[in-house]
Design goal:
alpha+beta; globular; single chain; 24% helix; 169 residues; 3 helices; two-stranded antiparallel sheet; 4-stranded mixed β-sheet; 60s Ribosomal Protein L30, Chain: A
């Protein structure tokens, strides 16, 4: 007859604690783009169990409260709107215990700028984005999709950005 060993609850707890210490901590892995100068990643691996936050699309705050709120003049050009939206994202992240360094994915929607012949102002967007990601103060880059859309909810909006953040506790 085989001999059965019984573990006490404290012995089992100690064994589990030792196993957890021996196991490598799961990490978020940021996969760089082939061009090291690229402002975005090729992708991100988020391990099971990471805390994830999906932010709804954020739109720009008004920069000229005297302007008609249904006009671009109220919110500024693409660069100005991008900066305003990313500040709003930063605040929303902070309120949930996250930071810009935890962002792993951005979905960016740009409306064609009438001042640019109806084309999206990718250069203006990029200038705003570059102030928040891949900097000395916040070196993390993100996976990102940027598309031109016909319109957003307000005719004055040129930019809307959704953010996904993740962190391992």
């Amino acid at each position: 007859m085989p001999v059965l060993k019984f573990l006490t609850a404290s012995t089992l707890a100690l064994a589990l604690a030792q196993a957890a210490q021996a196991a490598p901590a799961a990490q978020i892995v940021r996969h760089p783009a082939p061009d090291p100068a690229a402002p975005i990643l090729i992708g991100v691996t988020v391990p099971a169990g990471a805390q994830t936050l999906l932010l709804s699309g954020q739109v720009p705050p008004a920069v000229d409260p005297a302007a008609d709120p249904a006009t671009i003049a109220a919110y500024g050009d693409t660069r100005t709107q991008t900066i305003g939206v990313l500040h709003k994202i930063e605040a929303a992240l902070k309120a949930q215990g996250f930071g810009l360094g935890d962002v792993v994915k951005l979905d960016v929607y740009l409306v064609g700028d009438p001042a640019k012949g109806g084309k999206l102002d990718f250069a203006g967007f990029s200038q705003g984005y570059a102030q928040f990601f891949g900097t000395a103060a916040q070196p993390n880059k993100v996976a990102r999709t940027t598309v031109q859309v016909a319109a957003l909810a307000n005719p004055g909006f040129l930019v809307e950005i959704e953010a996904t953040a993740a962190k391992v506790r």
